Amino acid sequence: MRNSLKTQLDVIGTRGRITVEPVIDTGFDGYLTLPAALAKDLGLILWNFVEMKLADGSVHVEFLFDAEVEFLGQIKPIQVFVLQSDECLIGTELLDDCQLVIDFPTQTVNLFRSTSKTKK
User: Fold this and answer.
1) Would you put residue 16 in left (φ > 0), alpha (ψ -120 to 50) or beta?
2) How far is CA 84 from CA 38, 77, 89, in A?
3) What are phi and psi of 43, to 5 degrees?
């Protein structure tokens, strides 16, 4: 079994900040997912709830919370999906202005801000 490819960022809430190592999930089009226990410890504020379709095709109602992240040298406000899971995921919305290079044989990731972002 191969290791998951991860990156590192800080999540900032009303009660503090923590460093997490989310799995890079290019199939997830949101910003970030966090375990409920971490969101509670950070004091994240409920923003909304939405239906979320998972990779297995099932649909769940999930809660979105406001947070800030420090990622690749920038602090930005985001919405975090809080899940009943122990795993953090980083999605394509947070990677929108980045280049991602994966070396599968060595299981290494090079993630950096793109110098040439195209308009959507």
Assistant:
1) left
2) 11, 22, 13
3) 70, 40
Instruction: Report the CATH fold assignment for 9-113.
Output: Cathepsin D, subunit A; domain 1 (2.40.70)
Angstrom CA distances, 36 to 44, 98, 102, 103, 118, stand at 10, 27, 29, 32, 35
CA end-to-end span of the chain, whole Å? 36
Pair of tokens at residue 8:
């590192």
Closest by Cα among 89, 85, 78 to 20: 89
* Model confidence pLDDT, tens digit, residues 8-44: 999 999 999 999 999 999 989 999 999 999 999 999 9
- The structure's pTM equals 0.84
Q: Where are the domains of the chain?
A: 9-113
The CA distance from 94 to 43, in Å, is 21
Residue with token string 């994240």: 44
